[in-house]
Queue: 2 jobs
Job 1
Amino acid sequence: MEIKILGSHGSIFKNMKSTCIQLSEKTLIDAGNIIEGLGKDCIKIDNILLTHAHLDHIIDIAFLIDFTFKERTKPLNIYGHKETLDALKNHIMNWDIWPEFSSIRLLKTSDYAINYIDIKPGRSFNLEDMKIYPYESNHSVKALSYIIYRGDRAILFTGDTYKNSKTWEIVNKDSRIKAVITDVSFPSYMDDIALASKHNTPETLKEDMENLKREDIKIYAMHIKPFCYNEVTQEIEEKLPHITVLKDGDYINV
Ligand SMILES: [Zn+2]
Ligand SMILES: [Zn+2]
């Protein structure tokens, strides 16, 4: 299976895009870089799986639905935890910040433009040719990690998280998982802000990975904050040399 990293950072800066992973022509995890990442192909997107409601993960939902509204023949399906969807509905897509597209009908059909789909941690579901298994990450708001299964292979994306032994318990038991993509946001000396905001540093990821018992798995880091990008990549190179830092536009094949 192949996925594309449209955005790999924990915020936005020139030539640095925020979290967005393309699973297929129609389906994304998170919405940090849809418009620039896909250009006109963004019209093909039908499904977005949200990890959580922080701005760097949802921002392009607003611009995607705006740009594609006139041509859409199907609603845009937004999957997420109930708390994530409530945050989006109550604080962003509420007419105050952006239109409430879930109450606006498309021009080409009678469907509403956005369809919210509430998903539960621990309950898998099918989407296109994939099976998706969501579980709770360890973040400052309710947030999901996702395992994406295609055939007999899988990729686990933790989304934003601090240490979470559950990830490694799952990986140890399930040999179908061939790659883990996880959060390293700050350098280790910023451990106070990392703990308060529930993100990993190279040190906390290293500690957490002591729970990993497999050697046949590829580990990738992303979500580095642009203001400390060089510090974090250098620290990962020194302390976690077997981990690959993802860049915008990278592909992962397993
Ligand atoms: Zn984030
Ligand atoms: Zn977050």
Job 2
Amino acid sequence: MVDTHNSYAVPVFGLPCFCLITGASRGIGRGIALQLAEKVGDNSLFVLTARSEAGLQGTKSLVAARRGSGTEVRTVTGDMGNIAALSTTLHDLFSDIPPSGTFSHAMLFHNAGSLGDITKKVCDFDDPNELQEYFGFNITSVITLTSKFKFRPQTYGRQRILDVRM
Ligand SMILES: NC(=O)c1ccc[n+]([C@@H]2O[C@H](COP(=O)([O-])OP(=O)(O)OC[C@H]3O[C@@H](n4cnc5c(N)ncnc54)[C@H](OP(=O)(O)O)[C@@H]3O)[C@@H](O)[C@H]2O)c1
């Protein structure tokens, strides 16, 4: 029996989905996009974000090659560690989303992240700007993106948020 109160028990595959993936220009983020491209249904929308436009375009081409014309792929370049520009980046990620009812599911993959310079000891962290950027990228951007995703009325259907950085 399917537990309908548990959104993770509801099927996603083959249905129109809104898929937002951070760090999608290469690596695991690109891999997530390509795996999802094989699973979601037509009329899905992928929103891919990272700093490298060239990398995002590469992922976009690969996703498009798997899905054909039935799925839209958008790219948004932005530095999640740049707190001053974060509001603009978040706005761009959710601009012109189709009307409510278009998607059965919405999925957010927090993939972009950084361990920072792991060779450093605590006594080496004497630059507040470096620390601020680290926490901005790994924490502030994740919380604010989750907030935008979770609570904006345009995000609809069942929602899944996966943090794949840990
Ligand atoms: N727990 C584990 O065992 C484990 C193992 C491997 C990976 N991970 C985590 O999984 C995630 C992906 O790993 P990966 O190996 O695929 O890493 P990767 O190849 O370095 O890719 C990182 C992605 O994040 C993007 N990114 C980096 N800094 C960014 C920033 N300031 N703003 C926006 N996007 C940024 C990169 O794109 P741009 O450079 O174009 O911005 C890239 O698309 C990371 O968070 C990593 O820490 C965990």
